Amino acid sequence: MPGPNLISHDRLLKLIGLPQAPILIDVRPPDEVSALPLRIPCSVPRVVGELETWVPPLAGRGLVVIGTGGGARAAGCAALLREAGHSAEVLQGGITAWQEAGLPLVSEAALPPRDTGGRTSWVTRSRPKVDRIACPWLIRRFVDPFARILFVAPTEVPGVAADLAAAPFDIEGEGVTWSHSGPLCTFDAMVDGFGLSGFPGLAHLAPIVRGADTGHPEQAPEAAGLLAASLGLSRMFADDHAQLEAGMLLYDSFYRWCRDARNETHDWASHNPSARRGKQP
Fold first, then answer.
1. What is the pLDDT of residue 277?
2. Non-local CB neighbours of 228 within 8 Å, separated by 6+ positions
3. Per-residue pLDDT at 280
4. For residues 89 and 6, what is the distance between their CA atoms, to the nearest angstrom?
5. How far apart are CA 197 and CA 262, in angstroms?
6. 6 - beta bridge partners?
7. Is residue 125 within 8 Å of 220, Cβ to Cβ?
8. Which of these, 17, 1, 23, 54, lies nearest to 258 by C-alpha position?
């Protein structure tokens, strides 16, 4: 049982990927990041000494501070955050304990450069359907919660990517890392490339997305339903970003079903989420 203001890696693992997950703050100094250039999924790098510049956008969100092994830096940052009125915990054992437990880690080298605000940028074709909503969902839930997702005309993707140091995805082209490969879709490439296959819910979600995106609904019984919902969303919204925001909820629900509810059947018993309060998500 973790002590006061500590959170265990088992508990944190259950929260990552959920819309109500805390913001994960990686406060390791550059030399420690160089020694281990990996990050816990969805964690963002921040400098403790610049706390006043990055804390305001986090108002109302739970926070978990991550150090190399816990330690004074993480504890001090969390204490400063609590003094400022935020809910902040420290990951017990830091990223070292997380790694020793064999839990998923994202390579910083797999990500595009971060801007001055610490955000990554990604660009794809406008008028998204399946992959181009599924991939931004994956990025914001498991890689960078503050990621900038840009939608442009297909011919403009390479130029925008170069001009804004954004990673192009779900488009063909020389040097494009995140795209289809054989029978696999871009979502598959990202789950594997970011090292996220250790999340069981994603392992079950991937074939559903693949089947819906590649015209092979037989790959998963739910693929046809996802395709129908995706095409419906594309008709409901003229604005790509409004469609993405609506699609986030769609993928949140599919992910939660994949992770926790695949063995549940519909019956007359009411499911009351409020009755589960106090239990792990």
1. 46
2. none
3. 52
4. 5
5. 18
6. 90
7. no
8. 17
Amino acid present at 124: T
* Amino acid 273: pLDDT: 65
Q: What local confidence, expressed as pLDDT, does residue 241 receive?
A: 98
Residue 10: other Cβ atoms inside 10 A: 12
Measure CA of the first residue to CA of the last residue in the chain; give whole Å: 17
- Asked if 40 and 55 touch (Cβ cutoff 8 Å), the reply is no
What's the CA dihedral at 164, 169, 170, 176 to 10 degrees? 100
Instruction: Report the alpha-carbon distance of residue 80 to residue 62 in Å, rounded.
Output: 14
As given in the structure block, the two tokens for residue 77 are 């940052």
Q: What does the block give as tokens for 43?
A: 């964690």
Find where tokens 């501070």 sit. 65
Q: In sequence order, which residues have a C-beta less than 8 Å from that of residue 83 and are 6 or more positions away?
A: none
Determine the distance from the C-alpha atom of residue 250 to the mean position of all C-alpha atoms in its chain, rounded to a whole number.
15
Provide the whole-model pTM. Answer: 0.93
Q: What is the pLDDT of residue 265?
A: 83
What are the pLDDT digits (tens) for 5-48?
999 999 999 999 999 999 999 999 999 999 999 999 999 999 99
Residues of the chain with pLDDT under 70: 1-3, 268-281
